């Protein structure tokens, strides 16, 4: 692509020598002959210091925020935003050729993306998915490194989706991706705000900054679907009332919402409710438990309705929606129940445990851990959520990363001791799972929280294989052989 075409819609200062650009990168390790190198400042490295070397390696264009002293350089106000626009231009902006649906919030993003993909596919549409568990181009699985990919990788994916015939793209949108401008220049047809609870404060520092990061997606969306049972969702419904976005609200509790769930019936494996608006009444049956699942189903249904699909057909499609790996996933049904879930925040634990506890005919055993090198204030709050529902708790490691795993357990354990909750503290997660399984009696429910779909642990900054699905499967095989 010629340089002038690559720079369309980008404001810059400087004179560009027109030449062919075959690649765009902000990673000094990927600079090659004929590329455009974007100088970005990160936490540990400032790309501006590499500009001269990038030219030596063959870069045809340097994009910077200030003069680096090299030729064929342009100056932009924000290099991260420019990088996202350049990546889009390099692939002829595939996001503009498909309907874009973005989901943001602390909890519920993954389930919501899968529900929307499933609903749209039942309407006969080809759909791309970008998210935490994996990316999907129609039915093809692509491994996911980040919840929301970096700008170049994102546009590669979007371009492949378009070429494969996808008409819709549904994606999880993380707060960090928004702040880092990975999606800058992409406008969404619909966005969903699920909820906001304490998470990622090691990065955002305050809840207000975390909230503002999420709002970047909403600011770039035509339709905004908002859960107003969440206090931040209610705030969005007020603050966006006079903005250009079309805001649609939903709730289980508030009759003032545009859509309200009535006659909610929850079981240990499903949810039933009637979704009511000013003009419509639709019955919904949905094969996932908990009030939070009602929120996820409503948000997904309304988003698809915003895209022009009949609400009755959408609600019928929800009946046929399958569960999501690692999201309240039942691994064993008899003689006790074993469930795997991704809940790794205080609110996530509260949601899943409150949804399961009423259906425990005997004990609810909760296995959980707290992440290392993440907000340490969450650890006590997570344990406080556990002790509200657990008859027995197993505190173990999540991803300690480079932090001392025993220090993490020490930070989290106090409420277990103070409230005299029967418990085990075991730093080795594999061993802790087997100890929890050994405890189980007929009618017990064990819920393993934190890993969900993940099949690894990060210890001492090394990624090690650990798949809870396989651990449980092997345990049950040996148990049944006895």
Overview of the molecule:
- With 482 residues, the protein is of the alpha/beta class.
- Helix content is 34%, strand content 24%.
- It has helices at residues 3-6, 51-56, 79-90, 109-122, 151-164, 175-179, 201-204, 207-219, 231-239, 291-306, 311-319, 346-356, 378-387, 405-418, 429-439, 468-481; strands spanning 23-25, 35-38, 61-64, 73-75, 99-104, 127-130, 134-137, 140-143, 168-172, 188-193, 221-227, 246-251, 259-266, 271-276, 281-286, 329-332, 337-341, 364-370, 392-397, 423-425, 445-449, 456-459, 462-465.
- An eleven-stranded mixed beta sheet has the order 8-7-6-9-5-10-11-12-13-14-15, with helices on both faces. The chain has a six-stranded mixed beta sheet with strand order 16-17-21-18-19-20, sandwiched between helices. Strands 1-2-3-4 form a four-stranded parallel beta sheet.
- α4 (109-122) packs across α10 (291-306), α10 packs across α11 (311-319) and α13 (378-387) packs across α14.
- It starts with a helix and ends with a helix.
- 49% of the residues are buried.
């Amino acid at each position: 692509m010629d340089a002038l075409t690559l720079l369309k819609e980008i404001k810059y200062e400087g004179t560009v020598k027109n030449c062919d650009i075959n690649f765009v990168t902000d990673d000094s390790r990927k600079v090659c002959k004929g590329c455009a190198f974007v100088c970005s400042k990160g936490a540990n490295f400032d790309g501006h210091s590499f500009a001269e070397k990038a030219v030596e390696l063959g870069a045809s264009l340097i994009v910077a925020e200030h003069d680096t002293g090299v030729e064929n350089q342009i100056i932009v106000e924000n290099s991260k935003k420019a990088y996202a626009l350049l990546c889009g231009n390099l692939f002829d902006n595939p996001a503009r050729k498909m309907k874009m649906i973005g989901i943001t919030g602390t909890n519920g993003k993954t389930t919501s993306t899968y529900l929307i993909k499933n609903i749209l596919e039942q309407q006969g549409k080809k759909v791309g998915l970008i998210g935490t568990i994996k990316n999907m181009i129609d039915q093809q699985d692509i491994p996911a490194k980040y919840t929301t990919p970096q700008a170049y990788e994102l546009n590669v994916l979007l371009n492949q989706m378009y070429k494969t015939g996808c008409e819709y793209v549904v994606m999880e949108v993380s707060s960090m991706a928004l702040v880092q401008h990975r999606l800058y220049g992409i406008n969404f047809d619909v966005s969903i705000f699920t909820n906001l609870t304490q998470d990622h404060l090691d990065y955002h520092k305050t809840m207000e900054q975390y909230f503002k990061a999420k709002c970047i997606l909403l600011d770039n969306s035509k339709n905004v679907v908002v859960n107003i049972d969440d206090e931040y969702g209610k705030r969005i419904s007020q603050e966006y009332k006079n903005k250009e976005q079309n805001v649609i609200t939903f709730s289980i509790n508030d009759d003032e919402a545009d859509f309200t769930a009535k006659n909610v019936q929850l079981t240990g494996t499903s949810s039933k409710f009637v979704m009511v608006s000013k003009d419509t009444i639709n019955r919904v049956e949905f094969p996932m438990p908990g009030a939070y699942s009602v929120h996820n189903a409503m948000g997904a249904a309304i988003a698809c309705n915003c895209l022009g699909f009949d609400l009755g057909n959408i609600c019928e499609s929800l009946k046929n929606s399958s569960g999501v790996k690692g999201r309240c996933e039942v691994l064993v049904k008899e003689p006790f129940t074993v469930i795997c879930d991704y809940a790794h925040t205080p609110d996530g634990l509260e949601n899943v445990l409150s949804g399961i506890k009423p259906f425990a005919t005997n004990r609810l055993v909760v296995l959980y851990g707290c992440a290392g090198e993440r907000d340490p204030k969450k650890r006590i709050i997570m344990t406080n959520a556990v002790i509200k529902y657990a008859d027995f708790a197993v505190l173990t490691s999540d991803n300690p990363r480079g932090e001392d795993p025993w220090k993490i357990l020490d930070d989290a354990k106090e409420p277990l001791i103070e409230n005299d909750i029967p418990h085990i503290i075991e730093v080795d997660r594999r061993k802790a799972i087997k100890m929890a399984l050994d405890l189980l009696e007929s009618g017990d429910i064990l819920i393993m929280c934190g890993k969900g779909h993940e099949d690894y642990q990060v210890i001492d900054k090394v990624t090690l294989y650990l798949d809870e699905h396989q651990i449980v499967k092997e345990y049950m095989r040996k148990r049944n052989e006895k």
